[in-house]
Fold this sequence. Notes:
The complex is a heterodimer of chains A (about 110) and B (about 120). With about 110 residues, chain A is mostly beta strands. Helices cover about 0% and strands about 55% of the residues of chain A. Chain B has about 120 residues and is mainly beta. Chain B has strands at about 5, 10-15, 20-25, 30-35, 45-50, 55, 70, 75-80, 90-95, 105, 110-115. In chain B, the strands form 2 sheets. In chain B, strands 2, 4, 5, 6, 9, 10 and 11 form a 7-stranded mixed sheet that branches. Chain B has a 4-stranded antiparallel sheet with strand order 1-3-8-7, with no helix packed on it. The chains are: A mainly beta (about 110), B mainly beta (about 120). Chains A and B meet through strand 4 and strand 5 of A and strand 5 and strand 10 of B.
Amino acid sequence: QKEVEQDPGPLSVPEGAIVSLNCTYSNSAFQYFMWYRQYSRKGPELLMYTYSSGNKEDGRFTAQVDKSSKYISLFIRDSQPSDSATYLCAMKYSSASKIIFGSGTRLSIRP
Amino acid sequence: SAVISQKPSRDICQRGTSLTIQCQVDSQVTMMFWYRQQPGQSLTLIATANQGSEATYESGFVIDKFPISRPNLTFSTLTVSNMSPEDSSIYLCSVEGGGIHNEQFFGPGTRLTVL
């Protein structure tokens, strides 16, 4: 079993829809949770960074961590065609430990 | 966040040859990381490079195949040696941005195709 599982998609939604991207993980020791966005032929870009449980909001993006269920989510409100990218969840045990990445979900927003 | 550049951005190489990828950062950083991203796969850490010391390699990666240099706090190179088609991948350089949680930022990547 992989440490971090992420549905690869592709996920296609119409412009303006709310998008929900999810990851599950197996090790309860993870404390730091991240979402990266990767456009085609570009490097990953850090989108959201959360420590422990709870929600974090930044503009149209909300990151949610449920440690009891070992489940993290990224919500995108009012989705735009420019949000079309691959979204990678990532997590680590401590601030100094290496990052474990999910395989990424390819998202396409239809105009 | 740091600005990271990589050279080359892409290359097509012949089996058995070697390619050196350069990573330049616009500020001094302690730790630099090299990742591999194969098609449809997650990012896999190859090694961590600290200035002034030998790189630390992850399981499955060895120095003879992926030698790394870290001559100063803003620059590193990764060499992919004796390449085979299985080495075709995107290679990414990453640095810690210095935030309280050691957030990591990535370069644009080098897309390598081995024929």
